[in-house]
């Protein structure tokens, strides 16, 4: 058996990257969240807090941590979860506090986190709609550029969907 097809620990070793001669992902990477592993790409987006529209997006591989992408601009309010703890933002930073081993959260920080969480919640809606309504949780394209184009079209479609929702609610 050729070395490139040799089985290692129950997994068949197949070519990856530019050598892949199939529909396998060329740029996708692995990421671990909790006990689950995910392969592929990640969509980073900036959502308008007033209307819930996606204003800016960036597509990266799954292994790039969210804290390494900052879509904020100077003097813009930035609402972020605990995953960004300790990372400076370009805008006005409202990152949720995280307890450390030597310092538990106080009552004031707990209340601050609760308020930030309430303000952040509408920003999670685009991900839910993209995944459930547009079935964009998985992609069949194989490079970051192609996934980026697909996500750009999906974001545009989401914004149209959101505008229809706002019109039905007589907000616009």
What report would you give on this structure?
A hairpin with a 2-residue loop joins strand 3 (29-33) and strand 4 (36-47). This protein has 172 residues and is an alpha+beta fold. It contains 3 helices and 7 strands. The strands form 3 sheets. The chain has a 3-stranded antiparallel sheet, with helices on one face. Strands 1-2 form a two-stranded antiparallel sheet. Residues 4-8 have low confidence and may be disordered. Helices cover 27% and strands 22% of the residues. It has one domain (3-168). The protein is globular and about 55 Å long.
Brief write-up:
With 172 residues, this protein is an alpha+beta fold. It has helices at residues 107-120, 125-132, 144-168, and strands at residues 7-8, 11-12, 29-33, 36-47, 54-61, 77-80, 92-95.
SSE topology:
Layout: E1 7-8, E2 11-12, E3 29-33, E4 36-47, E5 54-61, E6 77-80, E7 92-95, H1 107-120, H2 125-132, H3 144-168
Parallel strand pairs: 6-7
Antiparallel strand pairs: 1-2, 3-4, 4-5
